[in-house]
Design a protein that fits this description.
The structure holds 2 protein chains of 2 kinds. Chain A is mainly alpha-helical. Chain A has helices at about 10-15, 20-40, 45-60, 70-90, 110-130, 135-145, 150-155, 160-180, 185-190. The longest helix of chain A has 23 residues, at about 20-40. The radius of gyration of chain A is 18 Å and the shape is elongated. The relative contact order of chain A is 0.10. Chain B folds into 2 domains: about 55-360, Jelly Rolls (Sandwich), CATH 2.60.120.1440; about 395-505, Serine Threonine Protein Phosphatase 5, Tetratricopeptide repeat (Alpha Horseshoe), CATH 1.25.40.10. Chain B is globular, with a radius of gyration of 24 Å. Chain B is of the alpha+beta class. At the A-B interface, helix 2, helix 3, helix 4, helix 5 and helix 6 of A face helix 1 and helix 2 of B.
């Protein structure tokens, strides 16, 4: 995790547009940015484009970096905001459907039916998350999927650990409520157990 | 103790394993280099959305302060200078005094690329320079006399009233202008499939579908006047269509003053009509005078507006929003769906002219619907209506509309067929062919089909306006297909033809 605390020199270089410093910062942040973009924009062929868009915005933001939070927090906020814009654009276009073909390749060496079931279960989770309020969705992604502790997620979101725990609980309950009776998810759970 | 929620937790565990494949080092380097180029090459930086390390809620609107034309009218100096370098635009927001002739403009790099990027920056810089030159030392110059024009590389003509504060944020296919204060007129070139033009003010967002209109902003309200075509206006998450001859005000309820750029906009609309008649294009409706469609200070009152739209009284006021209609009542108010989830759903009204209602309104297709209007339906959330009309029309432009509508409806295979029919016309071959390719690649996951389309329609051939993008797409698709030798050959061709191309960093692998 990139922490600029006490690293005024680095922040100054970033603000000055030092290319080597910017390259190094972006290289450190890229894995997180790409994974968050994947989580928040959703799986699909547009991931690389979206990642590049976020990196461009991030490169600009780094030139205004004042060291009041970590670089990782800044990258997270840029990614979330970009994803939000994409979602709003998609919503305006009524581009609600995400073809299953765009989901990533099978995760395991399973038989075709199990693979299909797994992909469908994932697709349904993504649709469920897309319908969820933004803060709850981000809590679920950060804690349940990304594996961050509520406190770590709270730092990224700029809120308290208690609030994050509450959002996470509501998000998990919502997923449970919406999908526990879904026949595809149920079949996948049966097959996976 | 964590509550046990097995379905949620197991799905989360499954999703956790769904992480994207790690990037190859070369690809990562290419992405970073391209990002740095995109961020640092921009000649103007100020108007881009500010992502400083403030909490997300705190940075909203900082970019607004960074573009100003004409400066503070009360200032006495006139320098006529242009400030375009990085960071210079911040002066406007930080309280530095500006002469009335100063131009502090900003043009975001956005996603516009390569030669287009530099053309855009150069054109905007030239335009802003002349804006600065044209503004005299008078504190309050006569509006029309000193309005100045900027023509963007896309052909959109902007007229800027002195004192207007604006930022051209994007110059690519999704062009975007932020207007903080003052008045601007927009003569937007006809938009191709996938293109858009938005004007954002503190009070509303106006999305254009090929038209002539003005936007005027002060502290209390934003006013949109449409002289030709249709503009979709969003406010507080609610959208409505404003058509030729109508005026929408969001904010203060007293009558706004006359349009300071009205004559310019009217002239632009007339010029368009002349151009269109020579090109035998169908003409959208025009209006001789602009009518009012006003809303209350806080929000569009749907029920009230909808009621007013159907009321045949010459003038109708409501508590929070009101619609004024001229004595003849020829046109209707912009239709706004009367519910909280309303989208841009042009409501049909008994008095609405048949030409505006679309083919299904009276059972017979009509030729009077323009392409711009049909695209407006798509942009406004009525793709099925646009599709129904497009399918009754002939010509490659209508096939593009058909393809766009089908794509929005999620019927990607059919949209590819429509684009392919458009591409049969030599004039549309490359553009429609490129849409075939991108739809196949991005919507149908058919990389091989996309590569075939790029080749079949000559998208990357010399002289093609989409050659750079087509070659870059080819490289990406070939790599994804595992055809590395072919990908390297295509990348080499890219670098040879576009040595300064925006995606050059991704061509080394």
């Amino acid at each position: 995790m990139v922490r600029p605390d006490g690293d005024e020199e680095r922040a100054a270089k970033l603000r000055a547009g030092d290319r080597a410093a910017l390259q190094a910062a972006l290289a450190e942040l890229l894995p997180d940015v790409r994974r968050w973009t994947h989580r928040f924009v959703g799986p699909g062929a547009a991931l690389d484009d979206a990642t590049q868009d976020v990196l461009i915005e991030l490169a600009r933001a780094l030139r205004r970096f004042e060291g009041r939070s970590s670089l990782r927090t800044l990258a997270y906020r840029v990614t979330v905001r970009h994803a939000q814009r994409r979602r709003e654009e998609a919503r305006r276009r009524q581009d609600r459907e995400r073809p299953l073909e765009l989901l990533p390749p099978p995760l395991d060496r399973l038989d075709p039916e199990s693979r299909a079931m797994q992909r469908e279960a994932l697709a349904r989770l993504h649709r469920c998350l897309e319908r969820m309020p933004d803060k709850r969705r981000r809590a679920f992604v950060l804690c349940a999927i990304e594996g961050l502790s509520p406190q770590e997620a709270a730092e990224l979101e700029g809120t308290s650990g208690t609030t994050m725990r509450s959002r996470l609980l509501h998000a998990r309950r919502e997923v449970e409520r919406r999908l526990s009776h879904d026949p595809y998810v149920a079949r996948w759970l049966e097959g996976a157990s | 103790m964590t509550e046990r929620l097995p379905t949620a937790d197991r799905l989360a565990a499954l999703a956790a394993r769904e992480a994207p494949a790690p990037l190859e080092d070369e690809m990562a380097r290419a992405l970073i280099e391209a990002a740095l180029d995109g961020a640092l090459d921009a000649a103007f930086d100020g108007a881009l959305e500010d992502h400083s390390d403030h909490p997300a809620e705190d940075v909203e609107g900082e970019g607004w302060e960074q573009a100003e034309v004409g400066g503070d009218p009360s200032a006495g100096e006139s320098s006529g200078s242009v400030r375009g370098e990085l960071g210079a635009a911040r002066a406007a927001g930080s309280g530095d005094s500006l002469g009335s002739g100063d131009v502090v403009g900003s043009v975001g790099a956005g996603r516009f690329t390569g030669a287009v990027r530099w053309l855009g920056v150069a054109a905007a810089a030239i335009g802003l320079f002349f804006l600065g030159r044209s503004l005299g030392p008078d504190a309050t110059p006569a509006p029309d006399a000193e309005a100045t024009r900027v023509v963007l590389p896309s052909g959109d003509a902007l007229a800027v009233a002195p004192g207007a504060r604006f930022a051209i944020e994007r110059l690519d296919a999704r062009r975007q202008v932020r207007l903080r204060r003052g008045a601007m007129s927009f003569d937007v070139a006809p938009l191709a499939a996938g293109e858009s033009f938005e004007v954002r003010t503190p009070h509303l967002v106006a999305r254009v579908v090929g038209t002539v209109f003005t936007v005027e902003v002060d502290d209390a309200r934003s006013v949109v006047r449409v002289y030709e075509g249709t503009v979709v206006v969003a406010h507080d998450g609610i959208e409505g269509a404003v058509r030729a001859g109508e005026r929408l005000a969001v904010g203060a309820t007293d009558a706004p003053p006359d349009d300071p750029l009205g004559e310019i906009a009217s002239a632009a609309a007339r010029a368009r009509e002349v151009r269109r008649s020579s090109a035998l294009e169908p003409a959208p409706r025009r209006a001789g005078s602009v009518r009012d469609v006003e809303t209350g200070p806080a929000e569009i009152d749907h029920a009230a507006t909808a009621h007013a739209a159907t009321d045949h009284a010459a003038t109708d006021h409501v508590e929070r929003g009101h619609v004024e209609r001229d004595a003849e009542g020829v046109e209707d108010a912009p239709p706004v769906a009367p519910n909280a989830e309303a989208q841009v759903a042009p409501r049909r009204d008994a008095r609405e002219p048949a030409a505006r209602r679309g083919p299904e309104a009276d059972g017979a297709p009509t030729q009077a619907i323009s392409l711009a209007e049909a695209r407006g339906w798509i942009a406004g959330g009525e793709p099925a209506r646009a599709l129904a009309h497009a399918q009754t029309q002939l010509g490659p432009d209508w096939r593009l509309v058909e393809g766009d509508a089908l794509r929005v409806l999620g019927r990607y295979a059919l949209s590819v067929e429509a684009y392919a029919r458009a591409a049969a016309a030599p004039s549309h071959r490359v553009r429609a062919g490129f849409l075939v390719a991108t739809t196949r690649a991005e919507r149908l996951d058919d990389r091989a089909g996309a590569l075939t389309a790029l080749s079949t329609y000559g998208c990357a051939e010399e002289g093609s306006p989409l050659a750079e993008r087509s070659l870059a797409l080819s490289v990406r698709l070939l790599r994804a297909e595992g055809r590395l030798a072919d990908a390297r050959a295509a990348a080499a061709e890219y670098l040879a033809r576009f040595p300064d191309g925006p995606r050059r960093a991704a061509m080394t692998f």
